[in-house]
Design brief:
The protein is α/β, with parallel strands linked by helices and about 260 residues long. The chain has helices at about 25-35, 55-75, 90, 125-135, 155-165, 190, 195-215, and strands at about 5-10, 15-20, 40-45, 75-80, 95, 100, 105-110, 115-120, 170, 225, 235-240, 240-245, 250-255. The longest helix is centred in the C-terminal third of the chain and has 21 residues, at about 195-215. The two termini are about 30 Å apart.
Length: about 260
């Protein structure tokens, strides 16, 4: 794919990014619409949504259960892929209701005066366990690990974005290597089962580094970068960009 897909939300008055939800769709929508009573809001989930763990029809059931709530509040939910998602749901846009949809990597969201680049993917450090689980518990249309989970660097689509748009915000699942988490202490347990984990995690972060370097070199006015994946909360300004790591179900507004 070299042509970027753009999604416009002209009626949105607020944009919020959410950390991993791991299948808790109902809880996420309840938090958005009932707990926080947000209206006219676009919610972007930064990966690990949970698509692929259940049979395909389940996700349409989730939307149908929540469509009235989203409509009354005039809210939208847009999701990019994490490592705990079946990439096909996003690349093929298998879920594409007007208020609840998956988007492909390198999509650009336009809302509230922002151009937001969205790129999913990361490494599952527990993939050895997940492969074993899938081999023992196969279910039609459902799994827990997908071999094409890694983020992809696509300079062709970045070039095409640069010709048409200036990106001011980025939402990804993982993050550049200068961002937390930088410690590899948590990898040692899983490396005993899968020796390639450290190298693949380095590759994952270097792909984000390349995206960041490209955006800077192309003159995009990026001021904010949001990501999930690490199940912790942190933020810091690095070289003029405010990076925000979001914990599970953590909300943060794009201003």
């Amino acid at each position: 794919m070299s042509t970027p897909r753009t999604y416009s939300f002209p009626d949105a008055k607020n944009i919020v990014v959410c950390g991993d939800i791991h299948g808790e769709f109902n809880a996420m929508i309840h938090k958005l619409c009932i707990q926080y009573q947000m209206t006219d809001t676009l919610l972007i989930v930064a990966g690990d949504c949970g698509f692929g763990f259940d049979r395909p029809g389940y996700y349409d059931y989730v939307f149908n259960r929540n469509s009235s709530r989203l409509g009354k509040a005039n809210n939208w939910v847009v999701m990019l892929r994490g490592n705990h998602d079946n990439p096909a749901f996003f690349q093929e846009e298998r879920i594409r209701h007007s208020r609840f949809r998956c988007i492909p990597d390198y999509s650009v969201i336009q809302a509230c005066g922002h151009n937001i680049l969205c790129v999913g993917g990361a490494v599952s450090i527990d993939r050895a366990y997940r492969k074993k689980h899938d081999a023992m518990h196969s279910h039609a249309g459902a799994a827990s690990y997908w071999t094409d989970e890694m983020p992809v660097y696509d300079e062709a689509v970045l070039n095409n974005i640069s010709k048409a748009l200036k990106i001011d915000s980025v939402v990804t699942h993982t993050a550049p290597s200068s961002c937390e988490l930088t410690s590899k202490d948590g990898l040692s347990y899983w490396t005993a089962f899968d020796p390639d984990i450290p190298a693949d995690c380095d590759k994952e972060r270097k792909i984000m580094d390349r995206i960041l370097a490209y955006l800077k070199s192309a003159g995009h006015p990026v001021s904010h970068w949001y990501y999930g994946h690490f199940h912790q909360s942190w933020q810091s300004e690095i070289d003029g960009i405010l990076f925000s790591m979001l914990d599970i179900m953590e909300f943060k507004e794009i201003r």
